[in-house]
Amino acid sequence: MKPMNFGVFYAPFHPTGQDPTLALEYDLRRVEALDEYGFDEAWFGEHHSGGYEIIGCPEIFIAAAAQRTRHIKLGTGVVSLPYHHPWLLADRLVLLDHLTRGRLIFGAGPGALPTDAAILGIDPVEQRRMMAESLEAVLALFTEDGPITRRTDWFEMNEARLQLRPYSWPHPEVAVAAMVSPSGPRLAGLHGTSLLSLSMSALADGFAAIGRAWGVVEEEAERAGRPAPDRASWRVLGAMHLAETKEQAIADCAYGLPEFGAYFGGGAGFVPLAQQVDGEPQSRHEYAAAYAESDSVVIGTPDDAIAHIEVLLDQSGGFGTFLLLGHDWASPERTLNSYRLFAQHVLPHFKGRLSAPRASHEWATGKREELFGRAGEAIGNAIKSHAAEQERP
Q1: Percent of the chain, pLDDT > 70?
Q2: What's the pTM?
Q3: pLDDT digit string (tens) for 321-345?
Q4: What is the pLDDT of residue 2?
Q5: Cross-strand bridge partners of residue 125
Q6: Are 291 and 200 in contact (CB under 8 A)?
Q7: What are phi and psi of 267, to 5 degrees?
Q8: How far is the C-alpha of 300 from the C-alpha of 347, rounded, in Å?
Q9: Predicted local confidence at residue 385, as pLDDT
């Protein structure tokens, strides 16, 4: 079985009141740590309003992160296609593919924040249709040498071509985002791209839920007359914070989890976790403890994380990459500690790195009497031989 990959997905989420310069520097340092710890991927979002998700251009952020890392792949998570002319977007992506020496992953979506679309005068009802038109144009620019002409009600390309071919062959990996609707899985099946399941709860319902999403991909691929993408290209997002004990993990998350919950019930437009029980406000620790009991997150130990991922693998039928949601639930020090614990215990478990050393150790232990006895005899014979030589006149 092919080993799983692991990464972290940064929207990012930074509570208001932080210095944004320092918050962005913190994100870059986290990516450096992920590279050092052996994570495979890091993803960065595009958002323009709300004050929490403060990366406005993932391509620029990736260019900075690429200069501070060596191995980790870097993904746009995701570019909101209706906000950009596809020719200019494809040109930027090819440039970034060269600058990163092929470490770029192009993640695409329709745009998640209604406030962004409203400012741009884009009707949310049209965003998925616009995304589909843009994605088709970008893929054509990636793969075709001849001039490409496209005309829609929102962009026009007249004999367009890219002046550089991608560094990656045939082009950077393309991943389509899915949250609730079937549009993302349908596009992945239609174009043969990777799928990026970004539901805040990996156990959520809907066409993009992990129990149903890949079936939609396969159905659309069959309808398009193409083979379905490899399941190993499927990425699933989950929310975790790890510590040495569950009690410590809950204490860690009292640092910033209430603000995270408040944002998702405000500017992000999601339903927040209740901050009152029987009309009484919860303390920060009580709030974190209540959230830790949710089936959709892990606030606990590496063993809890392993068990959770195994449930997701069973429910989904298998996927290739698990992405941790990047968040500020805990302090920077405890967040990096969570990544370190994940890298030490969870990552090697699913990559199959633990079985060979364990088997070698067990084999050597089982051979101890047989082999070490003969080795001891050899040492004794050498000592006796040396002593006999010393006694000779």
Answers
A1: 92
A2: 0.91
A3: 999 999 999 999 999 999 999 999 9
A4: 83
A5: none
A6: no
A7: -65, -30
A8: 16
A9: 80
Confidence of residue 201 (pLDDT cuts 50, 70, 90): low
| Token pair 């609707």: residue | 181
What does the alpha-carbon distance between residue 68 and residue 28 come to, in Å, rounded to a whole number? 8
DSSP notation for 136-179: HHHHHHHH--S-EEEE-SS-EEEEE--SS--SSSSS-EEEEEES
DSSP H/E element including 238: strand 234-242
Q: Position of tokens 């409203």?
A: 118
Residues with Cβ within 8 Å of residue 218, at least 6 apart in sequence: 189, 228
* Distance from C-alpha of 54 to C-alpha of 13, rounded to nearest angstrom: 8
Model confidence at 202: pLDDT above 70: no
Residues 258 and 273: their CA atoms lie apart, in Å, by: 9
The C-alpha R_g of the chain, in whole angstroms, comes to 26
The alpha carbon dihedral of 288, 292, 297, 303 has a sign of positive
Which candidate, 9, 12, 22, 23, places its Cα nearest to that of 73?
A: 9
